[in-house]
Design goal:
alpha/beta; elongated; 11 helices; six-stranded parallel sheet; about 300 residues
């Protein structure tokens, strides 16, 4: 239980609704900001006004999946009010507190470093990333079906990157009968892809592999689907870039060639917000329960 743990949750989207529910069930002392357009009653949570005074007793400040933008503005879906995390807010956070978000931009990192506040990025955790790969793969599959005129079964697919998302994406495609090639950088991943029944190739060979492909699923957040690669794709091909913005695709050249290319980061929160929120909430609870400095966890 999180009895006595003071949590302020600011902003966010539908995922935060599940986080709120779980934190209140664990008996955290929860104050939420940025939900005034919702009529839903939040039993066990108090609504607060966004001010530095709100944070003076906080054990944790919970921010949305992308904590702030480059100016410190917190993304919000359920309020018209602008929530901005400023130097004044960070200055009053207790030194033993945490700022917890999905991923942090430089603004948030620098602010936490300046005030020596611990910053936790949940999406950097292997467990969270692996759990999130499930709704990501399902969402990508949905987009592939919507944006092609063929069945995924029997289609020729490339998955770029065999990391936490790439593994799940490749396995999902394979399970419904797609012919799956996997682009990798390292020899051990080449061997693993072969062992799993995929057709592996080294990333340096991507352009040559693109000649008869229906779908490319990219998970690498650096420019990998270049103009040279896109030039080799057939006109029917569709690129789904699952990497974080700005992705790893030359979208300008894809449009010029008439190749459909879609940037689709953050799919868990779009296609399965309840599940995505549960993943965040479970990890968040583990972190708070594991911190013996918090008042609610002292013997």
């Amino acid at each position: 239980m999180l009895t006595g743990v003071q949590v302020v949750l600011a902003g966010g989207d539908a995922r935060q609704l599940e986080v709120i529910r779980q934190l209140t069930e664990k008996d955290a002392s929860l104050t939420i900001v940025g939900f005034d357009r919702l009529d839903t009653p939040f039993s066990g949570a108090a609504k607060g006004d966004w001010s530095p005074e709100l944070l003076t007793e906080a054990d944790a400040l919970v921010l949305p999946a992308v904590g702030t933008d480059d100016e410190g503005v917190i993304p919000t879906l359920f309020t018209d009010q602008e929530l901005k995390l400023t130097d004044a807010h960070a200055a009053v956070l207790p030194k033993a507190s945490k700022v917890i978000t999905g991923m942090a931009k430089p603004y948030l990192r620098k602010l936490c470093e300046k005030h020596r506040i611990e910053l936790i990025e949940l999406f950097e955790r292997d467990d969270v990333a692996i759990y999130n790969s499930i709704p990501t793969a399902e969402g990508a599959l949905m987009m592939a079906i919507q944006n092609t005129d063929i069945t995924i079964h029997g289609s020729n697919c490339i998955v770029l990157g065999l990391g936490r998302t790439g593994f799940t994406m490749a396995r999902t495609l394979q399970a419904i009968g797609a012919k799956v090639k996997v682009g990798v950088r390292r020899d051990e991943m080449f061997a693993r892809a072969f062992e799993m029944g995929f057709e592996p190739f080294h990333m340096s060979d991507l352009a040559r592999q693109a000649g008869n492909i229906d779908l490319i699923f990219n998970t690498i957040p650096t420019m990998i689907v270049t103009a040279q690669v896109i030039a080799q794709l057939p006109q029917r091909a569709c690129i789904l870039d699952l990497a974080s913005k700005p992705g790893g695709t030359d979208f300008r050249f894809a449009e010029k060639r008439g190749i459909k290319a879609l940037l689709a980061p953050g799919l868990p929160g779009i296609v399965a917000p309840k599940t995505a929120g549960r993943i965040i909430a479970n990890s968040l609870t583990q972190i708070l329960l594991g911190d013996n400095r918090l008042r609610g966890n002292q013997p």
